[in-house]
Amino acid sequence: MDSSQGSTIAGFVDNASIQRNETSFDGVPVYVKELIAGGFAGALSKTTVAPLERVKILWQTRTPGFHSLGVYQSMNKLLKHEGFLGLYKGNGASVIRIVPYAALHFMTYERYKSWILNNYPALGTGPFIDLLAGSAAGGTSVLCTYPLDLARTKLAYQVADTRGGSIKDGMKGVQPAHNGIKGVLTSVYKEGGVRGLYRGAGPTLTGILPYAGLKFYMYEKLKTHVPEEHQRSIMMRLSCGALAGLFGQTLTYPLDVVKRQMQVGSLQNAAHEDARYKSTIDALRMIVRNQGWRQLFHGVSINYIRIVPSAAISFTTYDMMKSWLGIPPQQKSRSVSAA
Q1: Structural domain boundaries in the chain
Q2: pLDDT tens string for the chain (339 positions)?
Q3: Is 277 in contact with 283 (CB distance < 8 Å)?
Q4: Checking CA distances to 32, which of 104, 177, 245, 262 falls within 20 to 30 Å?
Q5: CA 309 to chain centre
């Protein structure tokens, strides 16, 4: 699809959205529309790359039998042991998490951006505002949805052998399976209380603040270099979203590895003798000492494969949903957005 075709399609969707908005979304608060757009964008992008996300988690947590395999071999092994649905194991928890996470992420980003524009005009209206608003939005959404991310990781970490009906984790060979999201959260809460539900939140927040900020910054910055006639192009949005996600993820990936290992610390076997880390810095130090510095980037290749379509789909879907729902641009409608 070339740029002109993308522009034509985007224009068609935008025109159709105007008519739809007049009948279906009149009177709906802007922040509700932002929640809907963000949630839909997050669910679509996350489900699209779910198999790659599953393999990435298995690599990051050094799951026996997977950390030395390639992408194709890992997926093939999952298919052999768990069938096609095994590729999407943990995706239910992921989608349940990502819908409120992405909804809050995009909505609070718009709210923070509006607040900064209204209260700090000296900062201007450039991509730097997106960096600040994106960072704050990332932290807010993580704090509100982190337990669901923990559940997703624990579910994805377990590898079932459907022939024996058992669950293999890295600790004691064969273990009883967690009974879905509720079972994971109940088990974790009984073991460690509220603090247990937020195990690994430190490196998550440390990583999400620059990642979310840089992602929004790069997306908006790249769009400023696109000629006006191509601003509505779907391919332009996909390309800017992919590059933005790629840039942000590269800088913060080691913290994602730390988060995953902290999340599954109680499941890991004796070979990981220091599985329970005291802090983010302690985790980074111990991983480098016991597993080598390369472990901090283990899975980064598949993350590049995953983040390109994920970020591209997420940003593009959000932009298209904003247009379809009739959400006004911040710079042009500050009073409306701030309401």
Answers
A1: 29-326
A2: 444 444 444 444 444 444 444 446 667 888 889 899 999 999 998 888 888 888 877 777 777 777 667 778 888 888 888 888 888 887 887 788 788 888 999 999 999 999 999 998 888 777 889 989 999 999 999 898 888 888 877 777 665 554 444 444 443 443 445 567 888 888 888 888 888 888 878 877 877 787 788 888 888 888 888 887 777 788 888 888 888 888 777 777 888 788 777 777 654 443 444 456 777 788 888 888 888 888 888 777 777 777 778 888 888 899 888 888 888 776 544 333 332
A3: yes
A4: 245
A5: 12
For domain 29-326, the CATH class is mainly alpha
| Rounded CA separation 223/231 (Å) | 7
Burial of 225 (0-12, 13-18, 19+ CB in 10 A): exposed
Measured at the CA of 35, the angle between CA 32 and CA 37, to 5 degrees, comes to: 110
Residue 26 token pair: 């009149």
If you search the block for the tokens 């690599």, which residue do you land on? Answer: 59
How far is it, in rounded angstroms, from Cα 79 to Cα 63?
16
The CA dihedral of 172, 176, 181, 183, to the nearest 10 degrees, is -110
Tokens of 305: 């494969």
